[in-house]
Amino acid sequence: YCLIHFYKSSMLGGTARSLGRLAARGERSLLTSSSAEAREALQHVDDRLDRNRDGSKRLDFAIVGPSDIETVNALLYATYYTQEPLTKHLGLCTGHNSIKDMDRMVESMVDKNLTLIAYDRQNNRPVGVAVNNSCHQSELDVTLEEELREMQDPRFHSYQAIHHQLRKENEHIFGEIGTTKMFSIKMIGISPEDRGQGVAKIG
Question: For residues 29 and 61, what is the distance between their CA atoms, to the nearest angstrom?
Fold first, then answer.
């Protein structure tokens, strides 16, 4: 089992049981959240995920919150920011916590308690993270100028402008699906020593 399979099954209906919590290794439990997005997501998740993808690595999963932000950032800086094409092209990542504007965005997403961390069951070591978000159509009303005023690093402006344009060009999807809110897998980071082992494989 892997990060993507978990969200494909839980958010697309493959996991239909509404159990209200997700535990990993027994002692790791979900922080109680007041956010509507977290409560809604929890209606679709299993109480415990004990399956491994191919028998080579057994993983436990936990939905995490603000107290785990350091672990989330460590995994993202380990592989995501160094390999993501646009971030790499713009030279934004120069070391741990070097992309302050992105760090702030990640923190706001983790606060929603929608982010998932995979742990190696053998030693409880975090091996992967899926930073997820809820996207509301009303957020597209914010202008690019308003977004850029919140940015600290001028180098990040190009990144923000490109993503702003992409969101505007795809606004029609909300109407096609018939919703004003979507679930979004924003970023996936894998520990370097665990890459190539199916932790985040789609197929």
Answer: 10
Burial class (CB within 10 angstroms; exposed 0-12, middle 13-18, buried 19+) of 89 = exposed
Q: What is the pLDDT of residue 41?
A: 58
Integer Cα distance of 201 and 203 in angstroms = 6
> What is the C-alpha separation between 127 and 28, in angstroms, rounded?
15
Q: Is 113 exposed, middle or buried (0-12, 13-18, 19+ CB in 10 A)?
A: buried
Q: Which band of pLDDT confidence, cut at 50, 70 and 90, is reported for residue 36?
A: low
152, 101 contact by CB (below 8 A) = yes
Round to whole Å and give the CA distance between 155 and 146: 16
Listed in sequence order, the residues at least 6 apart from 162 whose beta carbon sits closer than 8 Å to its beta carbon are 86
* Strand order across the beta sheet in which 125-136 lies: 59-64, 115-120, 125-136, 181-190
Which residue type is seen at 111?
D
Local confidence band at 171 (pLDDT 50, 70, 90 cut-offs): very high
Bridge partner list, 63: 116
Whole-prediction pTM: 0.73
